[in-house]
Amino acid sequence: MDHAHGGDFLWPEERKLLHHFISLHHDAFAWNDSKHGRFRTDFFPSIEFPVIPHKPWVQCNIPIPPSIYDEVCGIIKKKIAAGVYEPSNSLYRS
């Protein structure tokens, strides 16, 4: 927190209070993607967005440069394992 919000972003007393709050509730924070969770649907029902029927359009994927291909694949695999990305069978999947 001090690294991200250095200087006079917070007053000294606010900074102390925030440090205290974070230390009390340390387990409630997701510090990386593997700790990322979801809200329970019985408490927070899914939101449905109304859409207008339309014909899907096709767009080519953005090519990944070969020099960073392995790094990009690793990031995507971590996101899938953490549940951030989900499989899709929709018309817009690439």
Q: How are the secondary structure elements laid out?
A:
Elements lengths: L11 H13 L44 H14 L12
Protein name: Reverse transcriptase domain-containing protein
Question: What would you say about this model in short?
Answer:
This protein is mainly alpha-helical and 94 residues long. The chain has two helices and no strands.
Task: Give a description of the structure.
- The protein is an all-alpha fold and 94 residues long.
- The protein has one domain (12-82).
- It contains two helices and no strands.
- The chain is extended.
- The chain starts with 11 loop residues before the first helix and ends in a 12-residue tail after the last helix.
- The mean pLDDT is 83.
Radius of gyration: 20 Å
Mean pLDDT: 83
The number of helices is 2
Could you spell the SSE succession in H and E letters? HH
Structural class designation: mainly alpha
What's the main sheet like? Answer: none
Low-confidence stretches: none
Oligomer: single chain
How many structural domains in the coordinates?
A: 1
The tally of beta strands, per DSSP, is 0
- Termini separation comes to 37 Å
Features:
single chain, 94 residues, mainly alpha, 0% strand
